[in-house]
Structures are given as C-alpha cells and as structure tokens.
Amino acid sequence: MREFGYERAFDVSGAVALLGADPDARFLGGGTNLVDLMKAGVERPALLVDVHELPLDGVDFTHDGGLRIGATVTNSDLAAHPEVRRSYPALAQAVLAGASGQLRNMATVGGNLLQRTRCGYFTDLSKPCNKRAPGSGCPALAGEHHNHAILGTSEHCVATHPSDMAVALAAFDAVISYETANGPGELPIDEFYLPVGDTPHIETALPAGALITGVTLPQAPVAAHSRYRKVRERASYAFAIGSIAAAIDVQDDVVREVRLAFGAVASRPWRARAAEQALIGRTASAEAFAAAADAELAAAEALPGNGYKVTLIRNLVAAVLTELTEEASR
Hints:
The chain is of the alpha+beta class. The chain contains 13 helices and twelve strands. It starts with a strand and ends with a helix.
C-alpha cells in the first residue's frame, strides 16, 4: 500500500477544499470498499479526507413528502429507519441484502453509490483491465465472465456494478446531491452513472472534486408496495448474480404503475423502462410480466458463460411482480 496522508473534515466546504488542493486525494466514508482497493494497489491516493463526521447523517422528509438521505448515513441506519421501511421497503431490503452486519455498520450511503466493480481482473494488477488501466484490454471477454454484464456492455468492458442499494434507488428515481468548490449540484441517478462505452474508467458524471452530500427520493406511493430480491451463489454475504427492485400498482386487474430495476446485469443499475412501458395498461398476469421482461432483455448481449442471466432475470420479473400483485389483492 502506498504511503498516504490523512485529514479529517468537519464541514462540507472544508472537505471540498482539502480534496481540491490535492488531485491524488480521495474522500473516505466508511472505507469498506476504498480501503480494500488500496490494499490491492488499485487505488493509490496520496491523501484521505475523512468525511465520516460531517453533519450529513440525517433522514428527513422533503416538502413534497419524499425523503432526503444524508451521505454519511450508515447502511445499517438506513435499513432500520421506520420511514424507509414503510415507504420504500425495497430500499431497506436491498441494503440488508448487501453485506454483513459489520460492514453495514461502517458503510455510508455516499460511499455505497461510488462502489467499484468486483471483477477479478479489475482487482488483479497482474492482468489488463480497461477500467483500471484504459486501453490495456478486457480479458473477461474471453476469460472468466459468468457473473459479468449482459446489458449495456461494450467491447471495452463487461464488468457489473456491485451495489444493491443503488438498484432500489434507480427504481425510485433518486436524485444525488453534491457539493463542489463552485457550489452545489444535483444529478438524477439515470444520469449519475455513465454508460460504459469506450471509457469504462469514467464511471459517474460527478464533477472533479465533488463530494456527495445526500440522496433525495421523490414521493412515490407505488414504492410502498415494493420488493427487492437478490440471487447469489451462496446464502450470505455474496454479490448478486442477478437482482430486481420492483413495485407495482394494479387496479381492477390492470397495471397502472410499475417500477423495475435490475442489478448485476450491467455496469450500472439498470432501469428497465422498456419492460415498464410494456406493462402499463396491460392485464396483470405472469404471462404479461414475462413478456415485459422479454421486451427489456431483447437488447441483452450475453457471453458464452453468462447467458443464464437472461433466463434468471426473466424469471425474477415474473415471480416478484406476481407475488406483489397477489399480495395486494388479498
């Protein structure tokens, strides 16, 4: 591990100024991802700016009935918050599915959004990786890729985004707030994560030196009837091989509103807008749910070792939406 400096920030403007003074500095929240990458030699910051004690640890109502979640709220506190559990249950479920209890106690909302891929080639310095060393190649294309992306890929990268929390946030149109030396800004989550394209090393649209200060969830009555389901290769503390955040409103057997986002299938949380559009106004049925999933997955470009994800996601969509519909009718 490279020798590094350490500074603790006590206000947002001070944190931004510290990072701006050193181009090799990084913000440190819980450190559950960054420190691992530093140990592996993937991240080599000259300075860590600790933002864990900034006054950004609240969960509050917005003027329109949504929620504002501070960037330093821990994953454990987010999952346990009564209003999150009541109004956005899929978000609480996603966070609880994301890691061990010890990690959730440390990990922060801001840091979770900025997690980097768990692709083995990315974390192995002896291998090329376009995300770590642009232009070096993507050995996953012809190598080990059973848990890699099937949507939104390119010839330069097929890695997946690891966050469970971000999948639920994508389903509910979260907006990420940040602060820079030039003032505050906001990014809808659809714009926050960039398509992989030919620059997989540029993962978000955050301006240079920006500090995430919070996440806003707009009011969404449909979110109160939502679910997050994660499929993984072992029962505990494993990254998804496929996941779904889903919410649905059915009236008189007709789908009035639906939200769908997939995890572990792309370089970013994947909002399934084609599937949503295919369902609005349709009779709610397992067949309609599966057909909607097919509409979304028509764009999938599977590799030899990860084609199973197409069937997996299709089945998840049908199963979870069927369960939510049946529960609402009881």
